[in-house]
Amino acid sequence: MRFKLERVHYMPKELESGVLYVAEEFGAAAHLCACGCGSKIRTPLAPTEWHVEETPRGPSLSPSVGNWQKPCQSHYWIQEGEVVWSEPWSREEIASGRAREEARRTAYYEALYERRPGLLRRGWNWVKQWFTHSK
After folding, report:
1. Phi first, then psi: what are they for 51, rounded to 5°?
2. Which ranges in 1-135 belong to alpha helices (H)?
3. Do residues 3 and 59 lie in contact, with contact meaning Cβ atoms separated by under 8 Å?
4. Which of 52, 73, 101, 128 makes the best surface tag, with the fewest CB within 10 Å?
5. What pLDDT does residue 119 have?
6. Banded model confidence at residue 117, pLDDT cuts 50, 70, 90
């Protein structure tokens, strides 16, 4: 199966097989499961979630799609429009993968928080800047 990329403003109610829909404004992608079961797969697009890359050969979606909550339990990548099947995961592997994802999200947002000065620091910087420029 090959996927093509279709950029949309809103996700259509009915999805076509082989189409990766991307609504960048809303940070979302959707497609029908590559196994053919008909399940709608929604993937949030964000620095700590999935990302889509448009290539001349077709879209790439990463990381992999693990449909652990669907009956098919499909696990695959979309790379340059092609579906690359991955091995199924055990319950332990799924739990470990989810824990790694959560740790990655936590580290990302903690790093963002650390880089942004607190309210008092921003206020003090504003006062210093005001006095420096008023001379």
Report:
1. -140, 150
2. 91-115, 119-133
3. yes
4. 128
5. 75
6. low
> In this structure, are residues 50 and 61 in contact, taking their beta carbons and an 8 Å threshold?
yes
Q: What is the pLDDT of residue 41?
A: 97
Per-residue pLDDT averaged across 70-98, rounded? 93
- The structure tokens listed for 82 are 């092609």
> pTM, whole model, 2 decimals?
0.77
3-class state of residue 101 by DSSP: helix
Q: How far apart are CA 13 and CA 25, in angstroms?
A: 18
Tokens of 72: 């098919």
Residue 115's pLDDT is what?
65
Count the neighbouring beta carbons within 10 Å of the beta carbon of residue 80.
15
Q: Which residues contact 98 (CB under 8 A, 6 or more apart)?
A: none
What is the maximum alpha-carbon separation in the chain? 70
Q: Which strand ranges, in their side-by-side order, compose the sheet holding 51-55?
A: 51-55, 58-66, 75-79, 82-85
